[in-house]
Amino acid sequence: MADLRITAVTCVKNEGPFLLEWIAFHRIIGVTDFLFYSNDCTDATDRMLDRLQEHGIVTHLPNPATNRNYQMQALKAAKQHKLVKQADWVWIADVDEFINIHVGDHTIPALIKACGDPQAISVTFQFMANGGIEDFADEPVITQFLTSHNPDIWGADTAIEVKSLVRRDFPTEYFGAHRPFHDDSKSKTKWTDGSGRQVPPPFRKAAGKRRIRAFPARDARHHATLNHYALRSLDSYLVKNDRGDVNREHRAFDDSYWRERNDAGHLDDSILRYEKPLRAEMARLMALPGIADLHAEAVALHIAKRDALLAQDSYREMQAQLRAASPYSAAETAIRAEIGFEIGQVP
Questions:
Q1: Of these four, 4, 77, 108, 219, which has the most CB atoms within 10 Å of its CB?
Q2: Distance between CA 341 and CA 347 in Å, rounded?
């Protein structure tokens, strides 16, 4: 497992304050190469990636999309990029996703070994809640948000989404955001979950829309969990809602995405095992010429965007709505009502 080339592929827009943590984290778990595609950045994300590229840390390209299907067009291009073609393994994930490895030395090679050296590993999400944190803080995300839903149940669902590590010899026809696609009738693959078990046939065959990106989560994370920080702080969530949305003043706000990911009933701080090496690696990256200044600029622009949004009535209303939102998804709320529990009542 030594000297594996592992390429991480990701698409970004306005993720400037969070870039260094994500890159540093993945470097300490074994990623050797980074392929970033960016589009329409206004918070120094693209300039920081350009500078990191000058230092040999990442490869940064403009997103090749010709329409709004940014991620899929980028992934199509990535399949032909030399960093992907030369890689032993490819990891496709977003900047709010961190793979928390529970075995060996807690690196990707240790996960591959624990899973029996398969051709692909699909690791199940655990959605990390906001936890009542309102203010953006320039601190590692993984140290701030330590609660989630029950790992086996997300709202009313037992099937939870995954992201996938893909080995070079997997018969990939094309990369999806959540998994590779291939003709299962032509070639059988050794494709495991995060516990080293073969993934279920309906998922492997993409049998139906529901099974394209999810399978039952129970007992699927013995070797690894994919911590998904889709909410972060309330400040950052407001900024996230503005990203790519030029018509917020004239749209009704739906809090369902927030509610579905903000169940804080389960404590999971196991990812803190990475805190010390993460901070050390972040400091090394920050010490590269120009990087600290660009990071500080990204943080300042993030805060300025929050302030500008909160000058709008619609965003102040959104902020108030999220503060008051139920900690349960609509489906879970309906189930609780059916069995007689009021919101806030402990079963």
A1: 108
A2: 7
